[in-house]
């Protein structure tokens, strides 16, 4: 256990990840520019607070987040678990990078490549951007309908026929300790679990106070197969941190009326029990035994301090019982205080 932040074992591996993980997407400038100094200070604050799991991807800021996380972790790497992702190669572009949610990203564009050679090249590129010799976990990134549309089946076949072989080889040779898939789609993870031998999945925004759909098929399958879940985006892109205020974000867009209303109802229960909404959002997923870590995004030392406090906040069992009684979360959702 790291000081102040418990750890959990990842699948059947020997890795232990802090139950609160550091999602590095904001280091790439999600919705607002971030300076190098702010990025360094944020990672340092997370490490000093006891976080020992850090996740990044080439896509975040088109390489910028990897540069910044690597720089900040270089002297702290020894006792940290670090993951990055494969599937997107970055190619230089003239002028500004394509429009995205990243503000002032590096001048690159994405080329999808889930082949054996593409995976190996992606890892080498990530090593150079981060300045880190190795990674503990590699995730296949974003093989889902949101990014690939009707081509998602072709992408799935490509990675399982070729890219998966590269990851499995790296694991067998001891170059990485765990391999997985990172998406926001339950169905595709079920397909991956049935098609290969994975240690962990990163599931973004699909096991939260507003969505418990993985309970139907994915989580029971993961329990049987010994696959751990890293539950990312616990605030569903913002609304479960900010509350149901105007402009609140849900999956990177303005929250629809039904989500705003459901969030208001959850906030009412929070108020009755004296529980901050953010504390409930961060701790909810950890009630399920298949979840090893909740990975939240951080863009300032203040956010680190707040979220660590929210993770430690004592939530009475009666709070969870009322959410279930009102049908605001599913009754079969396991819940437990994690403070």
Automatic annotation (TrEMBL):
Keywords of this entry: Oxidoreductase
Ranges for domain NADP-dependent oxidoreductase: 20-325
A GO term for molecular function: D-threo-aldose 1-dehydrogenase activity
SUPFAM superfamilies: NAD(P)-linked oxidoreductase
Source organism superkingdom: Bacteria
GO cellular component: cytosol
EC number assigned by the record: 1.1.1.122
InterPro entries tied to this protein: AKR, NAD(P)_OxRdtase_dom_sf, NADP_OxRdtase_dom
Pfam family membership, one: Aldo_ket_red
Coiled-coil segments on the chain, per record: none
Entry protein name: D-threo-aldose 1-dehydrogenase
Provenance organism: Chelatococcus caeni
């Amino acid at each position: 256990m790291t000081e102040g932040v418990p750890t959990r074992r990842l699948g059947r591996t020997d890795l232990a990840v802090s139950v609160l993980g550091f999602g590095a997407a904001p280091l790439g400038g999600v919705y607002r520019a971030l300076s190098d100094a702010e990025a360094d200070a944020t990672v340092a604050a997370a490490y000093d607070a006891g976080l020992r799991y850090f996740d990044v991807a080439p896509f975040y800021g088109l390489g910028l987040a990897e540069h910044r996380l690597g720089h900040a972790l270089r002297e702290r790497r020894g006792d940290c678990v670090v993951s990055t992702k494969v599937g997107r190669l970055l190619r230089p572009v003239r002028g500004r990078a394509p429009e995205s949610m990243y503000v002032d990203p590096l001048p690159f564009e994405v080329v999808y490549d889930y082949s054996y050679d593409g995976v190996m090249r992606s890892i080498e590129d990530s090593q150079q951007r981060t300045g880190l010799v190795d990674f503990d976990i590699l995730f296949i990134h974003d093989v889902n309908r949101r990014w690939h549309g009707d081509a998602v089946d072709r992408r799935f076949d490509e990675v399982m026929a070729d890219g998966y072989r590269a990851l499995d080889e790296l694991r067998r040779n001891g170059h990485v300790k765990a391999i997985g898939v990172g998406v926001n789609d339950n169905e595709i993870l079920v397909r991956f679990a049935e098609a290969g031998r994975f240690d962990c999945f990163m599931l973004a925004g699909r096991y939260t106070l507003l969505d418990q759909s993985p309970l139907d098929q994915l989580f029971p399958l993961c329990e049987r197969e010994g696959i751990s879940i890293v539950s990312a985006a616990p605030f569903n892109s913002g609304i479960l941190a900010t509350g149901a205020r105007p402009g609140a974000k849900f999956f990177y867009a303005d929250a629809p009326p039904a989500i705003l209303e459901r969030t208001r109802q959850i906030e009412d229960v929070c108020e009755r029990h004296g529980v901050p909404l953010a504390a409930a959002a961060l701790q909810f997923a950890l009630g399920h035994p298949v979840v090893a870590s909740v990975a939240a995004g951080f863009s300032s030392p203040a956010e680190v301090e707040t979220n660590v406090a929210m993770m430690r906040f004592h939530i009475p069992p009666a709070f969870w019982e009322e959410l279930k009684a009102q049908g605001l979360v599913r009754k079969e959702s396991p819940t437990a205080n994690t403070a």
